[in-house]
Amino acid sequence: MPLPDDIAELAARVRNWGRWGSDDQIGTLNLIDEAARRRGAACVRDGRAFSLAMPLSPEGPQLGFIEGRTNPVLSPFSFPAGDDRMWHDDAITMGTQACTHWDGLAHASYGGTLYNGHSSSAITDDGATVLGIHNVRSLVSRGVLLDVARALGVDRLDGGHAIGADDLDAAVDLAGTTLEPGDVVLLRTGHMKWFDEGDRMTYATSAPGPGIEAVEWFHRNDVAAVAVDNLIFEVFPCERDDIMLPVHFLHLVDMGLTQGQNFVLEALADDCADDGRYTFLLAASPEPVVNGAGAPVNPVALK
How far apart are CA 222 and CA 182, in angstroms? Predict the structure, then answer.
C-alpha cells in the first residue's frame, strides 16, 4: 500500500538518501563528529554516572504479542577446570527488542526499500547484509535530555499523547540549551513509571511519543539519534487510521535516524532537574551484532 499523499510529501522533505554518499550505512549518526564528542565531554563536571538500561530479566517488557520478541532467559552452566576448580558461565536467549536497545536502519522498510535506496531483499536469512547495526562502531556524543513531561507540568504523559514541535520546543526551553548537529536526544515522557510499578500491559500497549509533526523537527535540528523511555517509541495508539507507526518508517527509512527504546531516564531526569543541567556526555554504543537490525545497549550518561 502506498503512503498517504501528505506522508509521502513529508518523506520527500526529510529524506537523507545520498547526503553522506551512496554507500552510507549509518545515516544521521554521520553527524557525530569530533566537535560533537568534545561538546559532550565538556559537559562532564562532577563525574556522576547514570546507567540508562533496564535489567535483562524474564520479567522484561515483551508480552508475547510478536513471535521472537522473547524476554531474556538466563541459562547458567558450569564445567570443571581441574581438581576442585570450576568455571561458571551463562548463555542468554532473548529478542533484541526485549531490553534497552537501538533499532538500526535495517529495522524497517517500505515499498521494498530500506534507507538510502537499498533493496529490502538485502534482509536475508543471514540477517541485514546492508545497514546492519555492526556498522555503528561507536555512538558517543553530547546527550540532551528533553524532559517533555516536566516541561508540560506533569509527572508522566498519557499513552496516546503525540509529542509535537511545541512540546519539543518547551522541553528545549526547560533544558536551557540549543541543539546542535550531532546531539543525541533522550525524550522523557515518564512512561517507564508504568513498567516500574509492574503494569507491563499498559507499558507495552500504549505510549506517549513523537508524533508525525515531530519528524520534521528532528530533521531540521540535525539530531543524530533519538531514544525514548517506552517500548513502542512513537505515539500509540497511532494518530491516524490510514498508516501504522509512520514515525518509524520516516525516521529509519527516509531520514536514516537511529531510534532507541526502553531507556531508563528517571534518575537522570531528577538529577537534571536538581542542578538545571540537561546536557551530558552520552556513551551509548550498541553491541556490534553482525548483520543485526538492532542491538542491546547499556547507555551511560556522565555529568
Answer: 7
Could you tell me how far CA 97 lies from the centroid of its own chain? Answer: 11
Cβ atoms < 10 Å from Cβ of 139 = 21
Note whether residue 279 is domain-resident.
Answer: yes
Question: Is 0.85 surpassed by the pTM of this model?
Answer: yes
**Residue 3: partners with Cβ closer than 8 Å, 6 or more residues away:** 11, 110, 111, 243
For 246-282, how does the pLDDT look when each residue is reduced to its tens digit (9 = 90+)? 999 999 999 999 999 999 999 999 999 999 999 999 9
Amino acid occupying residue 301:
A
Residue 169 belongs to what domain range?
Answer: 5-54+100-302
Number of domains into which the chain is organized = 1
107 within 8 A of 294, measured Cβ to Cβ: yes
Helices 212-220 and 5-14, interaxial angle, to 10°? 20
54 secondary structure, DSSP code: P
